[in-house]
Amino acid sequence: MQRKTGNETSKMYKKIQPFLRGKGIDIGCGPWPLDYPNLDTLDIAPEVNSTILARAEKIPMPNETYDFVYS
Predict the structure, then answer these.
(1) Residue 34 and residue 18: Cα distance in Å, rounded?
(2) In a 3-state reduction of DSSP, which class is residue 56?
(3) In terms of pTM, does the model score above 0.85?
């Protein structure tokens, strides 16, 4: 995945990168998802092309699916 710049995720990436382990989810990813290989993205906007199209209040995955959440 190509890292996009000029957004809050790119500004924080170096600080949060040590905490990214296992499978994660980026809730409300918008057009700038977190740059991580084992990541699902969730957004309510169809034009974002996230891996999960849903509201954050109703994530359609079983509990304990993810090791970390980025939002």
Answers:
(1) 13
(2) helix
(3) no
